[in-house]
Write a structure and sequence with these properties.
Helix content is 52%, strand content 0%. It is mainly α. 1% of the residues are buried. The longest helix has 21 residues. This is Fatty acid desaturase.
């Protein structure tokens, strides 16, 4: 593991030169809340398949939407997609 400081890994909110690592990015409560939200979206996608019939395609559309949100939110909105190259 290297200790390189990239421009993208510096904390711009303060004047200190701190490196954002996975250990200091989120506290435990925030991580648990984010996990519960994303897992609920995933379980909602699976549950929507119980209403799927050949006559009604909308449960599959809801399933795909919830499934995509369950993976898209943590990777883009919650900010973990850009940290793969830091460590």
């Amino acid at each position: 593991m290297s200790s390189q400081i990239n421009a993208s890994s510096r904390d711009t909110a303060s004047n200190k030169e701190t490196v954002r690592t996975p250990q200091n990015e989120n506290n435990l409560a925030t991580s648990v809340i984010l996990f519960v939200v994303c897992f609920a979206l995933f379980l909602g996608a699976i549950y929507s398949l119980s209403f799927l019939t050949l006559d009604n395609p909308w449960p599959m559309a809801v399933c795909l939407l919830l499934f995509a949100l369950a993976f898209w939110l943590p990777q883009t909105i919650f900010g973990r997609s850009d940290s793969a190259g830091e460590h």
